[in-house]
Amino acid sequence: MTEKFHYRNNLPVLREAVEKKYIYSYNWLFYDKESILQEEIVYKIDDRKAFIYDGYTKYSHSSEGKKTTVKIIDYSYDSLANPEEEYIFEFPFLTKKTPLYQTKVHRYQWIHGTYKPIDSKDYVIKNRDVTFSYDKNGYLLSEIWLANHNSLENKTEYSYSEDYRERTEQQYHMLGTEKSTKTLRKYDDHNNLIFEQSIEYTGHPLSAETYEYTYDQQETGSQKNITDKIPMKVQTAKRSLLITHIVK
User: What is the pLDDT of residues 185-216, one digit of tens each?
Assistant: First the structure.
């Protein structure tokens, strides 16, 4: 696919793409006088110059003190409106209300430079809540599922070595009350996975998988770049796998 991006007053206004031979896709963005996105339309034109409508999105926003609300309505290819989505920004929190998704209401918190999920309401089924907790460095510590808002249904806990090179995931079964599979993962200095092994709740260890990487000699600060696509054999306790690493 070939893409072109067009800007006006430092704002993106058009994305052109060649999806297939003789089929061109256009994505237009429209802003108000304050440079806030208002509308978006997507369409295609084929080799017969026929106009093919693909979608339209309407945005609205309002602000009150530190709280900003953005509402989004999508009109799909059949021109029917999807249920309205709502995004509420009240730093450091972000609340998403998405009626068509598995989770109807998501809450996020700004942690270490990114929004991380802290709780979800009505996950897959009505009245199921999922909560997340993190350590002081923004690493996930637990994921807990509650049925009917207060009955434990599922749980996963995470622990880390001091340098975060070793990370353990402990799953629970029996409605989150008994320890189940535990998985140990190890990472190198570049945060690439180099070892993974799970242990069943019976204590029986499963096959260990190890991963190897090749680095070039180009330095970026104290880090080395990975520049090749490298197929290699990865030895495990019971089998060998042919792994292809896409490295950038």
Answer: 999 998 999 999 999 999 999 989 999 888 77
DSSP character string of 21-54: TTEEEEEEEEE-TTS-EEEEEEEEE-TT--EEEE
Which residues are CB-neighbours of 218 under 8 A, at least 6 positions away?
224, 225, 227
147 — pLDDT class (breaks 50, 70, 90): very high
Nearest to 159 by CA among 174, 179, 130, 129: 179
CA-to-CA distance for 184 and 205, rounded, in angstroms?
Answer: 11
In the block, residue with structure tokens 């001091």: 162
In the predicted model, what is the mean pLDDT of residues 15-41?
A: 92
Instruction: Identify the three-state secondary structure at position 161.
Output: coil
Token pair of 71 as six digits: 């509402």
Distance between CA atoms of residues 2 and 111, nearest Å:
36
Specify the length of the chain in residues: 248
Report H helices in 69-219: none
When pLDDT is cut at 50, 70 and 90, the band that residue 218 belongs to is low
Residue linked to tokens 């009245």: 127
CA-wise closest residue to 54 among 21, 83, 19: 19
